[in-house]
Amino acid sequence: MIRISPKFSGLRILLRSAVMLGMITAPLVVSADKSPDDIDGTTQVTAEGFIQLVDSVPDLIVIDSRIPGDRKQGYVEGSVSLPDVETNCQTLAQNIPNKKSAALFYCNGVKCGRSAKAVKIALSCGYNNVYWFRGGFEEWLAKGYPYLQE
Description:
The chain is α/β, with parallel strands linked by helices. The chain has one domain: Oxidized Rhodanese, domain 1, CATH 3.40.250.10. Helices cover 34% and strands 11% of the residues. The protein has 6 helices and 5 strands. It has a 5-stranded parallel β-sheet, with helices on both faces. Strand 4, helix 5 (114-124) and strand 5 (130-133) form a beta-alpha-beta unit.
């Protein structure tokens, strides 16, 4: 039996509908100037990898590392707002109590360094099941995936 986390149930329905209707577009290719190409100790995922994680890891914790002004433009359903400037071992523990829990971090995209900074902090705090969506919200939007707005 597959257990669907309530925080992502709407996202799953919208994504499956978008795939069936052919609304999913080609990947966005953007050059990086602020985020590194990779971060040791993390598993980097694309938007499709993010969706696979949502489907396969029911207790996935998604951290939106952007500042509140960016989040007002939209965010992925089920994500928790924890800006990089507020990320430390204590705030991570409040949102990810088990250091072995799967946690995915994202920000605006490859030109945004916020999620990279937050991921490095998480690793230094001992979290060891860390995923990084480097393409971030920019890739999410470019592919036409659903999002929420405040």
